[in-house]
Automatic annotation (TrEMBL):
Residues 107-345 form the Translation elongation factor EFTs/EF1B dimerisation domain. Transmembrane segments: none annotated. Belongs to the EF-Ts family. One of its GO terms (biological process) is mitochondrial translational elongation. One of its GO terms (cellular component) is mitochondrion. This is Elongation factor Ts, mitochondrial. The keyword Mitochondrion applies. InterPro entries: EF-Ts_dimer_sf (IPR036402), Transl_elong_EFTs/EF1B (IPR001816), Transl_elong_EFTs/EF1B_dimer (IPR014039), Transl_elong_Ts_CS (IPR018101), UBA-like_sf (IPR009060). NCBIfam families: tsf (TIGR00116).
């Protein structure tokens, strides 16, 4: 600076961080100077994207704003994600995963949805699904309903322990879901939860194309028991049969366990459809009636588990398979119940 320059110019230069000849360089208290090379920046972007599942553009913008401080950027992305997830709560979330966890007398399965398959593949999202499923498997009877589903309001308040680099603490289920929604920036929601149990038998499960243990987009569960088998001496036979039947349930899509359990309204609806179809043939009434009964029998074979052809051997029906197993072990084996659950089913996309 030229000799004799006004003092205010020197002060201005100092405030802007420039050196002034004859005066020391002054840095504002609390200011930090970060030096991050290009390679480190690329690694930070990659790491933070993996932690949060956020778009690369957002990750880079926040890192720049936070002067390439990973933890500050992570916190900022969570804040932005929570606001974004709230705004997106009305958007369709039909992707996601099922989480399965077995307990002593049964199993629990839950569905958590996301907007995209990308988030469903995120390890934080998968950790959430597994943690919530595990929490569901340890619930007390007070949170369960008779319809093999959880009383949803109560279940949302159950504590779940998350053990992930992004979240490592205990939260209520609803808060854990909200945290993951905040981090990923998507509409993440717990859609439903079921359990199936057997006091005197076993529960077998099959996860179709499972990306990791306890995770899938499609699951089948079957509860089996052997009458008067108090010691469980036929448990291995049941396990083998149960695994096969759970796979069958996934492939064959049964709606009812037995003909007696077919809903009367569903049956009447199908009867009317069959009658309308048969009437177009111009046949006499007695012939039409036989055609209707024949088509109803065909419908039963399609939707009733015990009447279906066994997918692994279509020469047998499921009820015949159970009879053969019963003859083999010398006691009656029967199916108590089943579940077939698929991610996103029933959601209009």
């Amino acid at each position: 600076m030229a000799r004799g320059a006004p003092l205010w110019r020197a002060a201005t230069a100092i405030c802007r961080g420039r050196s002034v000849r004859g005066l020391p360089r002054i840095t504002a208290i609390g200011a930090k100077s970060f030096s991050v090379d290009a390679s480190s920046r690329t690694d930070l972007i990659k790491t933070l994207r993996e932690r949060t599942g956020a778009p690369i553009k957002d990750v880079k913008e926040v890192l720049v704003k936070c002067e390439w401080n990973e933890e500050n950027a992570f916190t900022e992305l969570r804040k932005k994600g929570l606001a974004a997830a709230t705004k997106k709560s009305s958007r369709v979330a039909a992707e996601g995963l099922l989480g399965l966890a077995h307990f002593e007398k049964g199993a629990a399965v839950i569905e958590i949805n996301s907007e995209t398959d990308f988030v469903a593949r995120n390890d934080l999202f998968q950790s959430l699904v597994l943690s919530v499923a595990k929490a569901a498997s340890t619930l007390k009877a007070s949170v369960l309903s008779k319809e093999r589903s959880f009383m949803f309001g109560n279940f949302q308040l159950v504590n779940v322990k998350l053990d992930h680099a992004s979240i490592t603490r205990e939260l209520r289920v609803r808060d854990a879901v909200s945290e993951v929604a905040a981090i990923t920036g998507e509409n993440v929601r717990l859609r439903r939860a079921f359990y199936i149990s057997s006091q005197r038998g076993i529960v077998s499960s099959y996860l179709h194309m499972s990306p990791a243990s306890g995770l899938s987009r499609l699951a089948g569960l079957v509860s089996l028991e052997v009458e008067h088998d108090q010691e469980g001496s036929h448990s291995e036979t049941l396990k083998s049969l149960g695994s096969s039947l759970a796979m069958h349930v996934v492939a064959a899509r049964p709606l009812f366990l037995s003909k007696e359990l077919v809903d009367s309204e569903v049956l009447e609806h199908e009867r009317n459809i069959c009658k309308a179809q048969a009437s177009t043939a111009g046949k006499p009434e007695n012939v039409v009636q036989k055609m209707v009964e024949g088509r109803l029998a065909k419908y039963m074979e399609e939707v009733v588990l015990l009447e279906q052809k066994y997918v692994a051997d279509e020469t047998k029906r499921i009820n015949v398979l159970l009879k053969e197993t019963s003859k083999e072990i010398g006691k009656t084996a029967k199916i108590e119940g089943f579940l077939r659950i698929e991610v996103g089913e029933g959601i209009e996309k």
